[in-house]
Amino acid sequence: xxxxxxxxxxxxxxxxxxxxxxxxxxxxxxxxxxxxxxxxxxxxxxxxxxxxxxxxxxxxxxxxxxxxxxxxxxxxxxxxxxxxxxxxxxxxxxxxxxxxxxxxxxxxxxxxxxxxxxxxxxxxxxxxxxxxxxxxxxxxxxxxxxxxxxxxxxxxxxxxxxxxxxxxxxxxxxxxxxxxxxxxxxxxxxxxxxxxxxxxxxxxxxxxxxxxxxxxxxxxxxxxxxxxxxxxxxxxxxxxxxxxxxxxxxxxxxxxxxxxxxxxxxxxxxxxxxxxxxxxxxxxxxxxxxxxxx
Length: 294
Hints:
alpha/beta; two-stranded parallel ribbon; 9 helices
């Protein structure tokens, strides 16, 4: 009897999703390679790059990303469905040398997105690879939606934060699931307590937008949370509740949750600690993983 088909369900989590790189590295060190990958949001980005054989390039880019280096990715604008237009992200993805189509990848892959009109889960399994990833990472309120085949699509984490069902649909018999939002430090948001360290981009942004990045007001218990604190907490709350419901009906063989409560969804310059956490997650469940894959 042969070994089972191993699938990865790589979850959403913004910058915390850099942990997927560490997970992939540590699984490879154990001699485990997935035959199928389903990804939601950052899970789609890392999963697609891995399936394309370009993980080294992405890791080098992520580890070298600084606070100032994030500016080209943040093409701020007032109009439209998000604060960030997304052209910088498209440029970054194309610069990694990804193949043009999902069908060109070395293994079955799909990116999960959400249809903004119907609210339905969308599985992108063919067509433009970069466009599919860009749609899956469209965090509501931050990154403008992406139009794919006549539909406006937003972040896959809105409907399926850790896409176990999608991995099984691709043929996985054993699913290793990764939840970058595995823990928060002191709840989703605490009034009067410093929020997670958001990129201090105020000095780099147009004056009218600086207040959105302000975090100083949160020292006052009666003060309204900043824009980024609100988005960060709302995403965490939404993902946690949806994930609990989804996993109750479709549990994976192995579920790993990252301990990255101090990392905000926009802290993309903190890749190194997230990657290290991904490695730790696999090491902590190495016995369970080995038993599951046979």
